[in-house]
Here is the input.
Amino acid sequence: MGLKRFGVSIPEDLLERFDEIVRKKGYVGRSEAIRDAMRGYISQSMWESEQTGGLATLNIVYQHKPSLMAKLVRIQHNAKAHAISSVHVHATHSHCFEVIVLKGSKKEIEKLADEISGISGVEHAKLFTYSIPLETQSDHIH
Ligand code: NI
Here is the structure.
């Protein structure tokens, strides 16, 4: 794929703040940082347009209680969004941290995330979404 150059006019202070981040993150140059930002913006916009589904991770911190853990497992088994994998960390004596990897449509993923974050005892929940065109989801071969 060829590279295309284009000119952009932006306020000086915005560029300074952007360049500061480019330096801190150790990008080779501004161009790669802009490409990264654009990919993120496109992915987020696609997600919001509801045309796609994709992958997501739901990060949760919750109270370590057997009844709560059983409820979390039950909800994941019954959900339309597919809980592909999860990592459980026994964070402290009283709290667990879990990363749940989800696959499905935007609607299914957000429904499951809302359901889990609404459970009493789940103290933090953050969803990170990555949109992937639906037609390429099922026939991915390594
Ligand atoms: Ni635990």
